[in-house]
Amino acid sequence: MPVSSAVKLCRMASMLMLFTSLVIVALPAGADNHSKAAEAHIEAMIGSAKALLATDSGDLAARTEQVTDLLDTYFDFPGITRFSAGQYWRAASVTEKQEYELVIREVIIGTVVRNFDQLKGLEYSHVASTEKGSKLVLVTGRFSDAMGERPSVLVNWRVTTLPGKPVKVLDIEIENISMLVTQKQENVAIIRKNKGKFGALITAMRKKLAS
Amino acid sequence: MRYSPRPAGPIVTRATFTFLLAAIVWSAVSGCSSLPESQRSDLRDPFENGNRKVFAFNMGFDTYVIEPVADAYRNGVPEGGQRAIGNHVKWAGMPSTAINSALQGKAENAGLATLNFLVNGLTLGFVDLVEDDTPIIKEDFGQTLAAANVPEGSFLMVPFLGPKTTRSFAGTIGDMVMDPIGTLAGGGNLQTVNQLRTPVAVVDFRARTFDAFNDVKYNAIDPYSRVRSVYYQTRAGMLEDRVRSTIGASESNDEFDDFFEDES
């Protein structure tokens, strides 16, 4: 082998090694950034929720408005909408999708508003973060009752870390019960009971909201 | 208080009686017909029509009996008393956890449950004397059957007992048969405590989950399918020892994996 070819080969090998080491160094850093961003997002959300609880007067309209702002800031409503409709999302018409987006949002806000009092007196502490691929981080935390009257519960926040998009919460899992999976399975059951009609779900949701 | 051993016969009778009562009520209200897959709202639920009738029956029973009692209990019984009753309910489940942990080869959990049962037995479990923070993970015979690869079977809504699968229902019967407290409770005060165990446990559970339970019961669009979903998720977590343990993070969740695959 000529000397020049050997030098070229060495250079290429060095470049390849440098590139590989850069990739090795860069990958965990990126992954770590995802975890850090997700954790910071949850901490910020808990801070906002605490501030809301501290100023909550019990007025339903004011609480609904504040909770809506909180959810809009920290939650991935478009993702929640698509996920909760299951496999029927793709088959839904544009109008149905638009209607569903509004109605599921109202259902979720209503659920949080109704149960907001249960957060009073709870302290949150971070436990761990787990990368689930490049798009999702599972942030685990614990809610403990400051008075010790209720047992502490582990909570998993599913936080989306999609490229080019802000970090948002997709799901909350409490003691292995995912709020989003539960909503999806309920929705899918309603659609299946109505022979696959997506509109039946919207009608059922509207009826419940009106009651 | 007497600790006279009781022959196996009456315990089997209690389990058989519970099973027969549930089966009779289930048959009466459901009709037991299996639905074709296309008509099920969940493929795991072939007896959905019957199950929904039983669910309506259970919710009626809850409305007129359990909910008012649980409401009175949580508002009338002082916090300390509720904690003591909660401790007793947990303690009474320790033998089942010890036996089933041993059957599944979970020696540490079996040991912890046995120790807890023996130590707290001094107060019949009303006072928690064990100062160990290591969580004892609840194990039942349904989980033992799952560990032995017995198929899960169909979803069942059992009168009074609520959601089950055929496997977990069989496990409930197994736990009743193996219950050592029932064996020891020959008569007197201990027997009275033993007889009150199930209703007390039901009221304690209902009181502890009062708001969450009522939110599903009164605000869900389809409470039946919501209860079914919650049951399956809780059960899956128990099978992986993730409920009431220090392990919080799900190792995998196909629903979310599929979602992101579809999105990309």
Structure description:
The complex is a heterodimer of chains A (211) and B (264). Chain A has 211 residues and is α+β, with helices and mostly antiparallel strands. Chain A has a single domain (4-210), classed as Tgt2/MlaC (Nuclear Transport Factor 2, Chain: A, Roll). In chain A, 60% of the residues lie in helices and 18% in strands. Chain A has six helices and five strands. A five-stranded antiparallel sheet of chain A has the order 1-2-3-4-5. The longest helix of chain A has 53 residues, at 3-55. Chain A is globular. The termini of chain A are far apart. Chain B is mainly alpha-helical and 264 residues long. In chain B, 66% of the residues lie in helices and 3% in strands. Chain B contains twelve helices and two strands; from the N terminus they run ααααααββαααααα. In chain B, strands 1-2 form a two-stranded antiparallel sheet. Chain A binds chain B through residues 82-83, 107, 110-111, 114-115, 118, 127-128, 130, 132-133, 135-136, 138, 140, 142, 149, 154-156, 158, 170-171, 173, 175-178, 181-182, 184-190, 192-193, 204-205, 208, and chain B through 40-42, 79, 211-212, 215, 219-222, 225-226, 228-230, 233-234, 236-238, 242-244, 246, 248-250, 253, 255-257, 259-260, 263.
